[in-house]
Amino acid sequence: MKKLLSFILVSLIISSLGFAQRNIKKPNVIIIMTDDQGNNLGCLGNPWLKTPNIDKFVNESVQLTNFHQAIMCTPSRTAMMTGKYSLRTGAWRTSVGRSNMRTEEVTIAEVFKENGYATGQFGKWHLGDTWPFRAQDQGFEETVNFKCGGISQISDYWGNDYFDDTYYHNGELKQYKGYCTDVFFNETIRYVNECNEEEKPFMIYLALNVAHLPAIVAEEYSKPWIEKGHPQKQAIYYGMISNLDENMGRLMSSLEEQGIKDNTIIVFTTDDGTAGYAAQFNENEWPTEQGFNMGQRGGKGSPYEGGHRLFSFFHFPNGQFNTNEVDDLTSVMDIFPTVMDICDVKTTQKLDQDGLSFKQALYGQPIVGNDGRQLFLVKLNPNQDVLFKRNKYCVIDGDWRWVSRSELYNVKDDRAQKNNLADKYPDRVKAMDDALLAWLDKNAADRETPVRFVLGDEQHPIISLTTQDLWEKSVFSQGHVQKLESGKGPWKVSFMNDGRYKVTLSRYPLYTRLAFNANTKGKNSNEFKANKAKLTIGKNTYEKEIEATDTHVTFKVDVKAGDTDLETWIYSTENITIPSYFVDVEYIK
Are 308 and 331 in contact (CB under 8 A)? Predict the structure, then answer.
């Protein structure tokens, strides 16, 4: 009876806080997601990193100690944006045409915008580079971002190198001064100031490039680590996090100066495990003295704990939380329903989420619906059966982990996942594997249904495609273009209208004015003398000759509305064949 009365009392307090929030200014929301950082923070035990500003932030926050991201960055981001498993949204890989999120998905930005919030997105998006998949098409009113999955990848502005780069402000190119992390914090602070002056609540998604490849930071940040004997790449990686720490301090000071720090919810997490170049280990080797991962096995892309069990902190002084840690199982899918719950926002749209609100846990109470909950993390290969042997899986059930359908671990006793217990617990293995198969049957059936690029809209007549999104084999970095990497497969497209289209093929972005034959890698790179281009749209094929100085080849073709494939080839006198890395499709009626 005492426990029941205690639960009722806490529930009434929580409810009253929700009602109180209706009578004061609505809470602001900032969701900060870094990239490939793993658990590299001083407060989490990294013996080399010093992150005093983040440590201070953490001391004022609730830590989710059993929080799980997806195994790759796009799936983590779409799960956060929708509260769903990524396989249900179309955006379940980082490339190969599977990173466009379906437009019918209801995003956290759309819900908060519906409730009178200003919405801003700064940094990485990676859920679609073209209309109607961009951040500004999915509920964000103000955006400053780069394309693709990282700065210097193929659809990012050509030549960006983390310093004084050109990004897309609401879809328009604009150059920004300074280091990339500084810029995205600058834009966030600017937007916060503007919203606060207008007395309008805001919901911001600050998705940082740190600490993604290529590893670049000013020498002042990396030099201290080099002097301590760290390998150069690891020193640069730690330097990037040191810079992040400075910026976190700037953001928190700005919020405090404006008097809104206590009424701002800040969620701080990262999208997946540590990248191998920084951690100095892989999923088949346990952490060594060269790298840090909280004693967990594996890093980025791994189904082991180090690939997905990651830091997440929840900061909201006005929430008056009565705990410092939540040990319950939580997921990136839970962020959307939780902040929605705490902010007491409503929507008329159908959400159908897989995530749960963990608001109750912030007050020391059980999460409703979490008892017996399982999580399913997968890294599937495109164009393969769901049970393809190179796929990666992790089923989470309490302290148990069923990994890649062959290994069973109890992470309470074996956090490093050294002791495979599959032979000792055959009944548990069968139950967890059956659960995985049932989950795949339910959620993976539509994974290969393309989220097609939309061509021929009168309001958005020009759509730019890159080989990041080839359906069979992507070419996704600017360095790959320089090295003449060969991609494979078509773009999956949908023409909205019958009519005439201008299709322009080029090796480099048109704004660079570089010829097909231009050598941008130096004297040791391969010669490439392009002499012919081929385009197919559905069953129709078109060819043109390429001259030595041509920067592009243009085809004007008549197309019928509907779904189809678009594919390209560029041939050379050296018998090298590449796809056209860049394709612009313009509807000219």
Answer: no
